[in-house]
Amino acid sequence: MEATERSKGSYSRKGSSFERESPPMVTSPDILNASILIVDDVPTNVELLERMLQLAGYTSVASTTDPLEVCRLHRENQYDLILLDLMMPGMDGFQVMDCLTKIEEGEFGGYLSVLVVTGQPAHKLRALQLGAKDVISKPFETSEILARVRNMLEIRLLNKEAKKQGRILEQLVEDLQKQIITDPLTNLYNRRFLQEYLPQEIAKARRTSSSLAVLMFDLDFFKRINDVFGHEAGDAFLKSVATLLRGCIRESDIACRYGGEEFVLVLSGASLDGAMKKAERIRKAVMELDLTIRGKPLGTVSTSIGIAVYPEHGTGMEALLRAADEALYEAKENGRNRVVASEPGDESRETKK
């Protein structure tokens, strides 16, 4: 048997589309290269099984006559198949299977592949109940044990591949979920994420009687960089600003690209005074960015920042974003490159450059 179908097909993502791949296969070389451990306290039995497997083409066959070593060896090597005798001194095969099962469940979470080879057929049911996948009685026919070894290895390898494909699918889903909420240029969260996240943070602040601040940024005269140096330079500058913002916030805060050259920070638990100080540090840091594109300096770009704080300036997402946007508009109307905080009653507080 050269190959066995292991699924009806799988899918891969290339670009933004899904394309069907050929069904994955387990081949004879895969099976013959699988790792096997022989466990029997009688050396002649071990030698017989080793020689039989090697003559059949199996290339990775190990053995031990000490049952106390089996769990350590499996932990180190994660064998694809263990041929296990039952009646052994010091630790019988049932105890070995119990130990192996705990290792698989606790450390590997995998498929324990044990073929019991025993001269005590009366123990077959107990062996199967304890986790053995198959039992063969001594004396055995060489062709029979080789057929069972191959079948068990095939199942083991299919199980491993299924787990691998499952992990790949989980990673694919995770990547897609991340793409949905992430701005592809800056790798910050996007507006969609902000609209899902901010109401949750407001609800948490309401439950805990705490505050939060929304900082809305706009890069001043940013169009000049795109017009003079091209969009490549503009993209590079936006990425640099995003890196700067990530470095200025805590794990409990988030930074979003709101659109174009606009950014929003949500600072969990921040007071108005704390938000003003944070915004002022960021404003100065943006002014200090020194970027070049193909050896040409881009010059400095300033930023205008509007601030709104829950609950003083709004108790819902739309109210807070509107208050921060109005404060940002005022910062721009008053000369840009400054921080303006919204105030109750349409008043404003300003920190000038």
Structural class: alpha/beta
* Helix proportion range: 40-55%
Beta-strand percent range:
15-25%
Distance linking N and C termini: 78 Å
Q: What do we call the CATH homologous superfamily of the largest domain? A: Response regulator
> In order across it, which strands form the biggest sheet?
11-12-10-15-16-17
The CATH architecture assignment of the largest domain turns out to be 3-Layer(aba) Sandwich
List the helices and strands and how they pair.
Layout: E1 3-5, E2 10-14, E3 17-21, E4 25-27, H1 28-32, E5 35-39, H2 43-55, E6 60-64, H3 70-77, E7 81-84, H4 93-108, E8 114-118, H5 124-129, E9 134-137, H6 142-181, H7 191-208, E10 212-219, H8 223-229, H9 231-248, E11 254-259, E12 262-268, H10 272-287, E13 292-293, E14 296-297, E15 303-310, H11 317-333, E16 339-343, E17 347-351
Parallel strand pairs: 5-6, 5-7, 7-8, 8-9, 15-16
Antiparallel strand pairs: 1-4, 2-3, 10-12, 10-15, 11-12, 13-14, 16-17
Helix pairs in contact: 3-4, 8-9, 9-10
What are its keywords?
353 residues, alpha/beta, Rossmann fold, Alpha-Beta Plaits, six-stranded mixed sheet, five-stranded parallel sheet, 17 strands, 46% helix, 23% strand, elongated, disordered N terminus, disordered C terminus
